Amino acid sequence: MDGIVLGRNFPGCKRSLQGVSASVPPCPLGVDVRYNLIGDVGGYYAARLLRKQLNLIYLNLMFNDIGPEGGELIAKALQKNTTLKYLRMTGNKIENKGGMFFAAMLQINSTLEKLDLGDCDLGMQSVIAFATVLTQNQAIKGINLNRPILYGEQVRTRRDGCQCNSVSINEGAEIDVEEESTVHIGHMLKENHCLVELHVCKHGIKNHGIQQLCEALHLNSSVRYLDVSWLSVVSNNIEGEGLVALARSMKTNPTFSNIYIWGNKFDEATCVAYFDLIQMGHLELANTDVEPFVVDGRVYLAEVSNGLKKHYYWTPTYGEAYSQSPNAGFALVPVGQHL
């Protein structure tokens, strides 16, 4: 695939992007302008590029200081774009406002297959909006919703007091407000059978939320890659019961092949469950970010470098990665004919 790379070209990147938007090459094109400071002005030219560049199938805008206004322009341009397959907006703080425009775009766009909105400071409203529109969108194969900004205090939600977009909570279930988005994502997975790769790191997921995902995974036959890990001090708060339920999902769902759980709360039952998964062949070591080891007859889990973040922000300057899984970085699922 032909491509234009303008990464880390701070002084001239806006002018270069403006020039790219004015030309239409004869073959499929990818444009990579990651790690520049193009801001919302650059977002305007990126939107213009999407409107005029009829052969563009890949656009990487990660960490470009694009805010809600630039995100709005790009999302609106994608409503009419019929060629782009893969967009990376990672690290651009489009916030809840920008996220809502991207969710609205997915109601119209039927060609985009992968959307990376990790570290974009999405809000609860926009995450729920994505879960809602993905019940109908049949084009998206992979979506990254990592690290949204979810606020709230613990509340007791009962059936007679909570009906949110057809998602009901069992009577007496106690959840965090932060887990509301996970409940909607679980509902979406019951309806959507096209999504293959889902990233929901640092969503404040606890056992109730992961139980909702597990129930959906029993019915879902498309999701292969689920990332609920977080490689930081602050993590999802899934504990033993929820992690064991995820392990059971891998046994009952033959399509579900990759899972990344590091950074959650492992107890002995969790360690044994994933040890058994690997020993029984339900989970390959290359397809997870943990590896079991035994000390004095007790099983523990250690972190290994197969995680999805290994080449997420950068790629090797030469050579090939040993295998696809360690070099995942939201690239597990191929999209389009040329990617």
Automatic annotation (TrEMBL):
<keyword id="KW-0677">Repeat</keyword>
<protein>
    <submittedName>
        <fullName>Leucine-rich repeat-containing protein 34</fullName>
    </submittedName>
</protein>
<dbReference type="InterPro" id="IPR052201">
    <property type="entry name" value="LRR-containing_regulator"/>
</dbReference>
<dbReference type="InterPro" id="IPR001611">
    <property type="entry name" value="Leu-rich_rpt"/>
</dbReference>
<dbReference type="Pfam" id="PF13516">
    <property type="entry name" value="LRR_6"/>
</dbReference>
<dbReference type="InterPro" id="IPR032675">
    <property type="entry name" value="LRR_dom_sf"/>
</dbReference>
